[in-house]
Amino acid sequence: MLFCYLLAAFFGVRMSVGLTHFCDKTNYNLDEQICCDSKLSDRKQDGQIIQCCNASGETYKNESEICCGSVYNKTVFENQNLSCCNGTRYQKGKEMCLGGEIKVRMSVGLTHFCDKTNYNLDEQICCDSKLSDRKQDGQIIQCCNASGKTYKNASEICCGNVYDKTVFENHNLSCCNGTLYQKGKEMCLGGEKIAVDGNRPGFRDDTRIDMIERQLQKIDEVQKTLHSLTGSVNLLKNEIYSVKIICRWLSYIGSLEYHKRIARKN
């Protein structure tokens, strides 16, 4: 302990017995004082608990003041209809705090946001951070996420981009994982577009056969597993039946022995 005091004196640190909390180079009683921005203050002032506003390095009274980036009078803060969002003031009614960010409140009660604008989910749709009416020309509007465009669900189709549904169908086209392909000449297998005639570069008939054979092998493996499980269940049933028979015989033999003993005693 003497060594600690000598070391503290060498570095210019003031120490008191039993105090282990330090504010800068001064140790202090945590129950009576508070350290804020390397400055000590009494833990209580005017009957209020003192806290530290870390953002500004100021102390504030917990009942009459508020910390929001800086220290403000709580009454004035509330009278101006202010609130705090991640250390920044905002005005309730005109703005709102969502995920630690202040966003403009366009209408009261709306909690869905498109970029920084809140909107009615039943009336509008957000696509690529742009708002559009939910219905247009009597059709429901949807978002084609791949292109960031909206499309009419009855007359248009989304497949990497937006296309007219009539033209799409007239050309015998279909969609495979966001890519166009022509039915009859191409097919979609496992989310991949492949040529039916095998003319696609890098794709041969034997490759397609190999893919089908692998799928069949998987089916066979599943069937074998199921068959093995069925056999195990049947075997278990037979074992249980055998145990039951043995138990019955033991019970019968035990009963005979019991009656023999009774007969001997009589």
Question: Your description of this structure?
Answer:
The protein has helices at 2-10, 74-79, 165-170, 205-265; strands at 21-23, 26-28, 33-36, 39-42, 44-45, 48-53, 58-61, 65-67, 71-73, 82-85, 88-91, 95-98, 101-104, 112-114, 117-119, 124-127, 130-133, 135-136, 139-144, 149-152, 156-158, 162-164, 173-176, 179-182, 186-189, 192-195. It has 266 residues and is an alpha+beta fold.
Instruction: Please tell me the overall pLDDT.
Output: 77
Helix count, DSSP H or I runs of 4 or more residues: 4
Estimated share of beta-strand residues:
35-45%
Helix and strand sequence: HEEEEEEEEEHEEEEEEEEEEEEEHEEEEH
Strand order of the largest sheet: 5-6-7
Structural class comes to alpha+beta
Stretches where pLDDT is under 50 for at least 5 consecutive residues are 1-17, 198-204
Q: Radius of gyration from the CA trace?
A: 40 Å
Shape call: flat
Terminal CA distance reads 93 Å
Give a quick account of the main beta sheet: strands, pairing sense, barrel closure. 3 strands, antiparallel
- Total beta-strand segments: 26
Helix content: 25-40%
